[in-house]
Amino acid sequence: MTCYQNSQADGWYRQLLQDTTAFPFFYTYGGVRYAGFSPTCLIGRETSRDGERETAVLRYQISEALVATLKLTHSYAYGVTEWTVYFHNPSQRNSELLAAAETQLRFAGESPVLKGILGDHVNQYRPYSISLTEMPVRFTSESGRATHVSFPYFNLEHGTGGSMLAIGWAGTWTADFRYENGETVYTARSVNNLCTYLKPGETIRTALFVRADYTVRRESYATNYWRSWFIAENLPKEDASGKPLAPFSTCCLASDTGLPNSDGSISERHTTWRPSLEKMIEENVKVDFRWFDAGWYTSPDKQTVESDWWNTIGTWVLDPEKWPGESFRESTDFAREHGMRTLMWFEPERVTNPAALAENFGYREEWGIRCNAIDRYETASREVVTNNIGDPACFAWTLKQVTDTLRRGKVEMYREDNNSNPGELWRYLDTVEGEGRTGITESRFIDAHYRLWDGIIDCTLSYGGCGFVDSCASGGGRNDLESMRRGVPLLRSDSDRTTTGLRLSMTTAFNKWIPFCGANTKEKTGELALTGRTDPYTWRASYLPALNVDSQFVQDPDQDFDILRFGLSEWKKLSPYLLKDLYVLTPWHAERDTYSFTALAYFDEETRRGALLAFRQENCPASELSLSLPFVPAGATVCLTDEDSGEAITVCAQAEGAALTLCFAEPRSARLLWIEVK
To answer: Which of 9, 324, 583, 598 could form a disulfide with 79 if both were Cys (CB 3.0 to 4.6 A apart)?
Structure first.
């Protein structure tokens, strides 16, 4: 297996512990700019070790009204250092103003190049590569959905190696890169507009900042260094046993009810689920999770939600007309008895009709922050009411509403959505409070959100459910690193339910950074289309750790169960490799480019086995694709076996990276080849 230990990175971490005055963190307090942490202010120090991870917690008395706590963790297995700073007011009076809290790192090394991807939504994970000697770069996110538009993960190549960098914060953030005097300067902050005093007893925190130095200046090396660390030390555990999270499949039954359905699970009810599940069992096309999406709840005025799931959320109580008595629990029990679990959709950061919620469900109207905001499609402005979980009482009410429903239904996985941009609402509430404190609403809100997920995970674990949640915010809006320690994106983007070309484009960009994610198994004309094309080409483009099966089981008389069995069976065969090293073997192509090849390989260094997926898109004029396999060392022999034909191809590597040519009989075709290196 590749060894990613890095003695130079270990030395940097030890030096930080020895001299915290040089710690790369800066802030302004009471009008004075502070750099690092003075040992004369140290009032507490604890160090612990868990395997190859060491954590130091250092507390500093900055003033009577401000204590700073530095939580610093280092992985000796990977040479990765991470830190978060907490500010607390232990006194009985307000602190001075705290502002401009940021991390700043300097990297020596010639020819610095910044690589990464942009965010979801308008940018659809488009990659970039920028020479910092030619121009400085700034990325900023103000919307409150941290990975829409921009993406807070960066690959900074410099000298003979490089550094992977991340900002783990689900709110606003900024990252600046500039090259000066032979060094690259990186400045990162969370809560972009922070300028606040802390009231007695208040605590706020920064983002999780990560520095991961690597030693070989090659993008595939950096990619797999990051993926390996991410999977080993960030990916949440599957359940209470602590076993690693493994690939799984899901399926939503909403399109299989025979009833009108605008989106989500609006048409699902106690009479619809059994025929679908029984047919899945009969045809041997069971999935791991039944996906139960939006529209299952009663509205704030206790009405049945017939079509408008967007404007009726907030109760988080099952609609008693659709799901009388314990009928929903009956459906989850049936699924469990047949080896399937359930995941359930919520959107706790937004409410509708606060007055009715107050009258009927014990809500307080003042918890709902009203402000005009861009809706989930960003085509128009509409009033959005944000549920202020930063308020302790609102937080407690929300957590109880959610966990009571999860526990009553024994739902194994919580799925969260957020279809609004809360950033402007946080800033609005800062001004409404009129206390001259900017950034305080966001600080409370994001901290509360992480604690909300922690409480929900504790709930599902308590009865044998998942040790993670599904992270969604109109698709890929909440994939920051801190969130990814609690959740996985079952849909890395809402638009990933459309064309196969877009799906391939996203896999070759997004999966370099966040290994565990999913897409739809159909090619559709639109995100919300209920029908679409499914064939081996689309299935193979959809093979990701989360396989989201899109199918009708009883309502489509032309349903081809053979293609379902084909896809599920082949994905299960491939799934052991999906969290191994990833090699993108062809240039990235844009989502609308259907004239190219796409090829990628997953390879397990330990077993020397893997799989290669290659696609000739529908308008690609060429029939042959020449590749190099970078994971094959010089002098080795690689045997590739075609899944469809059984044909074996043997190639001897004269130099590092065996050369291979693949032929495709026709456009819109995909090949799957099993790899063995000897």
So the answer is: 9
Range of the domain at 323: 248-577
Contact 566/551 with Cβ under 8 angstroms?
A: no
CB 110 within 8 A of CB 147: no
- 11 lies in some domain: yes
Question: CA-based Rg of the chain, rounded to a whole angstrom?
Answer: 25
Helix (H), strand (E), coil (C) string for 16-57: HHHCHHHCCEEEEECCEEEECCCHHHEEEEEEEEECCEEEEE
Domains: count for the chain = 3
The CA-atom distances, in angstroms, between 671 and each of 498, 588, 595, 627 are: 21, 18, 17, 14
Q: CA-CA distance, 585 to 675, in Å (whole number)?
A: 14
Q: Span 41-49, mean pLDDT?
A: 97
For 478, phi then psi, to 5°, come to -135, 70
Q: Residue 326 pairs with which residues in a beta bridge?
A: none
Q: Kindly report the CA angle at 527 between 524 and 531, in degrees rounded to 5?
A: 40
- CA 108 vs. chain centroid, Å, equals 31
Write the CB contacts of 38 (distance below 8 Å, at least 6 apart in sequence): 20, 21, 60
What DSSP string describes 273-325?
HHHHHHHHHHTT---SEEEE-SS-BPPTTS---SS-SGGG-S---B-TTTS-T
Q: Report the C-alpha gap between 125 and 241 in whole angstroms.
A: 34
207-238 pLDDT per residue, tens: 999 999 999 999 999 999 999 999 999 999 99
Q: Is residue 58 part of a domain?
A: yes
- My answer on whether 120 and 266 are in the same domain is no
pLDDT (mean) for 403-425? 95
User: How many C-beta atoms surround the C-beta of residue 419 within 10 A?
Assistant: 22
Q: Which of 548, 577, 606 is the last residue of a domain?
A: 577
Number of residues written out for the chain: 678
Q: For residues 382 and 373, is the Cβ–Cβ distance under 8 A?
A: yes
CA-CA-CA-CA torsion sign (183, 189, 195, 198): negative
Q: Which residues contact 137 (CB under 8 A, 6 or more apart)?
A: 114, 130, 176, 177, 178
Q: How far apart are the first and last CA of the chain?
A: 15
Q: Is the pLDDT of residue 313 over 90?
A: yes
Q: Identify the domain boundary among 545, 577, 609.
A: 577
d(CA 183, CA 185): 6
CATH number of the domain that 33 lies in?
A: 2.70.98.60
Report the half-sphere exposure of 483 (CA within 13 A, side-chain side).
26
Check: CB of residue 132 under 8 Å from CB of residue 159: no
User: Binning pLDDT at 50, 70 and 90, where does residue 1 land?
Assistant: low
Encoded tokens for 316: 């988080």
Report field, pTM of the whole predicted structure over 0.85: yes
357 CB-near residues (< 8 Å, 6+ apart): 300, 314, 315, 351, 363, 365, 368
What is the mean pLDDT of the segment spanning 520-524?
94
Are residues 213 and 317 part of one domain? no
589 Cβ partners below 8 Å, 6+ apart? Answer: 501, 504, 505, 596, 598
Mean pLDDT in residue range 617-622 = 97
CATH of the domain at 664: 2.60.40.1180
Which residues, at least 6 apart from 131, have a Cβ–Cβ distance to it below 8 Å? 111, 112, 113
Q: Are residues 518 and 609 in the same domain?
A: no
- Tell me the CATH number at 347: 3.20.20.70
**What pLDDT, in 10s, does the model give residues 416-454?**
999 999 998 899 899 988 889 999 999 999 999 999 999
- pLDDT, mean over the chain: 96
